[in-house]
Amino acid sequence: MTSLPPRPGLPLREGRDLLTPRPLFVERGINPHAPGSAHLKLGRTEILATVSIEDKPAPHMRGKKEGWLTAEYAMLPRATTDRQARDRNLQNGRRHEIQRLLGRALRSCIDLRHFRNQTLYVDCDVLVADGGTRVASVLAGYAALHDLSDRLIHAGTLTEWPLIHAVGAASIGLIGDELRVDLDYAEDKVARADLNVVATADGLLIEAQGGAEEGPITQAEYVRLLTAGVEAVGGLLKDVQRQL
């Protein structure tokens, strides 16, 4: 697929073409108190992800052969251009939606039979937001689980590698007729359709979340978004794995 320069009046991409994600940097082991952690930057968006292990099964997992993984998501007050009050409302719809997405995505990458009678908590905190915070949180959460797995193997706590898939996510949007990969905030707010695609490194689809913003799109456009999303995830995960 050939990338064309953005038409006049559309958001610029700061030197990257339409199908190229923003620069990605990740550092694991960033929190000395957490058994697994990672700091991830995707463009100007920054996420700190930590993993904690509780030696207690989730209530619905008692007596079962595997443990459980749950995720929490929060945005710091100055993650955006204006200060936002700390979110103390556990019923916040957007936060709850993102946490459920993160939990589903990260549970798909790990064999929880290695954590029987335990609960893994993956906390993703947005330090700086410039679009794509939920997809960056999936990538950061995976990196933190990789850090956890490596530490447990080296400590002898686990004898088998618990991660069964490399899992990541990417945002894809249509601005006018242009398909763009990894939208920043300026692009996201003018997209007429966008998807957050969660997939594995080998192209298996886990979830697609999003839709049209300015009226219906065609089935062909949706499939194009989905296909580009899966391809973008593969590229982003190569960057993550290279830096772990």
Automatic annotation (TrEMBL):
Coiled-coil features, chain-numbered ranges: none
Biological process, per Gene Ontology: rRNA catabolic process; rRNA processing; tRNA processing
EC number: 2.7.7.56
Domain of life according to the entry: Bacteria
Residues at which phosphate binds: R94, G132, T133, R134
Domain Exoribonuclease phosphorolytic: 22-147, 166-231
SUPFAM superfamilies, per database record: Ribonuclease PH domain 2-like, Ribosomal protein S5 domain 2-like
A GO MF term: tRNA nucleotidyltransferase activity
UniProt keyword Transcription, yes or no: no
EC class: transferase
Pfam families hit by this protein: RNase_PH, RNase_PH_C
Similarity field: Belongs to the RNase PH family.
This protein's name: Ribonuclease PH
Organism for this UniProt entry: Deinococcus budaensis
